[in-house]
Amino acid sequence: MSGGLEGNASVLSPEEAIFAASMVKAGQGHLFENWPAPGEKDAEKKALIQQIMQADAKYGGGIVQYIKNARKLLADSKAGVDAFAGFSPNIPMGETLTAHTDAWAAMEQVGLDSVAECSFMLVAGGLGERLGYSNIKVGLPTESFTGRCYLQYYIEQILAYQAYARETRRDDSITLPLAMMTSADTDARTKALLAAHSNFGMAEGQITLLMQGKVPSIEDNDGRIALDETGFQIQTKPHGHGDVHSLLHMSGTVKKWRKMGKKWLFIFQDTNAFALQSCLLGLGASVKNGFDMNSVCVPRIAGEAIGGICCLKSQNPDVKDLTINVEYNQIDSMLRATEQFKDGDVNDPVTGFSVWPGSINELVFKLESYDGALEESKGAVPEFVNPKYKDSTKTAFKSPTRLECMMQDFPRLYSNGALVGFTSLNRTYVRQYSPVKNNVKDAKAKQESGLEPACASAGEMDFYKWNCDILSCGGAGMAIGKPVHAEFLGIKVSIPPAVILSPSFAVGCKSKVSGGSLAPGSVLVLEGAGITLKNVHVDGCLIVKAKPGEEITLENLTVKNAGCKFVALTPEELAAAPEPVSIRGFRVDPIEMKTYTAAGKYTGEVTCDPSPVQ
Ligand code: UTP
């Protein structure tokens, strides 16, 4: 008996047979070519058809559309079509703010005043291949003392904003909703993490999980879908974070949020601890300027691997202008092709930074116009393809590729008239962006070539620096000791006093600290809304934990003890350490500390707790 699709008609249901025939028509006959005769591997044949049918249902327009899109994009890629032809770059419109200024504090206050109307979306479906961590990135600790993971930190920040909104508006019904985009790689573990910690304090129903699908891998310029080594499964890959828009639309989440009275949406990524603080500034700038979409940015050094926001003026009256992120590997060639910016991506001699603000992919949307654009487009942001060719003929790929889409390309979905801007946040003591993206080896290489390592140890040190900055800025005025230099796993770090502030303690740049000092190498942990520090000096380790509704005030207090030590792990310890510790390369040894947990007012000179930690 013969095999192939024709020979196996009896194995398939009528629906499966019709679907398989449509795939053959779309140039995918190779998927069934090597099928043996009926009776052999029949279950696998049906499973293959079912797998493609599922992918078909998940992709807007179905697999046939996906293949058409792939052929077009692959042809453009082969022909080297310039995506920016017909556009001329102009400086975009936006707000540039510097930390510790009145303008910054005022903008943050505008954001806080509107936070009651904000909804939140965390994209957390990425594979994290560059980090190589075997679990989900949002489960990584932000720092080694409390072990509070990114997801917990994010959720506690949203809950702190919710508490602020309830208190200032005197309305206990205000709820700030959080959605998370997961993928098959992260969904089950995200659910398990939330379940194990009772949603980190969020109410039942406050979190919505939306799982993105994967798309078929493509093996050649004709858009043929790639089979895996068994021959009975298609290869699939993530479609990119651009899926967030179609998921928010198709799930009805945007409509639901609008019904709840929400006017804004903040989309953020999995491991930048400062994202929710930046949200207040971005939100403030959106409210003030009426932005439909607003990209939070940091000052960008020319050539840096961060996309730049550009205003692209169209030379064709039928094509609208675009304010959009241009990827770092495209910006220089785009600029060099113009007369005005013929020197390419260079730093402005006055500011020392590129005039194109660096987008950190934290996006604020006005929900009304976002919803309108979703209705028109179904949220399908234009895709791109990035095949790795075997040679310059561009006829064969090194490995199968796929179409991807990016959430920052949303401006392409607005009809004319949407106001798209940026909010660039300049903080000199520590950058507003410190993601944990890279494994130790790559981070080391990046640091050696003068780039940010963006790894676990750097993320932790930046987290402490951020909190030091909060305590030293404005009215707080705590004197912060110099950082101590160290090297872990070949990565150079400067360890500032290790300050950990729970989101309930410091909302935005406001904190209930005035004066005092932290000696180099000290540790300060402040957990709870009811803590006040006035003229407190720490040389060692101080931990203060106030229960909800209780007040702990430390005034004219000096704490001196042996504190804690950051210790580099030996090769044996590294091998035995849990992964979140081994990717940092150090542990923190508590030697002595002073702890306050009971409500009250404390003053004087103290050393350590009665029974020091061994
Ligand atoms: P990254 O660019 O860091 O990609 O994603 P990644 O997939 O997580 O990591 P690499 O590139 O494999 O090393 C930025 C954000 O977008 C999310 C990630 O979870 C992260 O928060 N993302 C990325 C998705 O939600 N889905 C995707 O398909 C890709």
TrEMBL record:
Record key words, sorted: Nucleotidyltransferase, Transferase
Reaction(s) catalysed by this chain's protein: a monosaccharide 1-phosphate + UTP + H(+) = a UDP-monosaccharide + diphosphate
GO molecular function: UDP-N-acetylglucosamine diphosphorylase activity; UTP-monosaccharide-1-phosphate uridylyltransferase activity
Gene Ontology BP annotations: UDP-N-acetylglucosamine biosynthetic process
Obligatory cofactor(s): Mg(2+); Mn(2+)
EC number of this enzyme: 2.7.7.64
Principal EC category: transferase
Signal peptide range in chain numbering: none
Pfam families: UDPGP
Keyword Nucleotidyltransferase recorded: yes
InterPro entries: Nucleotide-diphossugar_trans, UDP-sugar_pyrophosphorylase, UDPGP_fam
Similarity field: Belongs to the USP family.
PANTHER family membership: UDP- GLUCOSE PYROPHOSPHORYLASE, UDP-SUGAR PYROPHOSPHORYLASE
Annotated protein name in UniProt: UTP-monosaccharide-1-phosphate uridylyltransferase
Organism, scientific name: Chrysochromulina tobinii
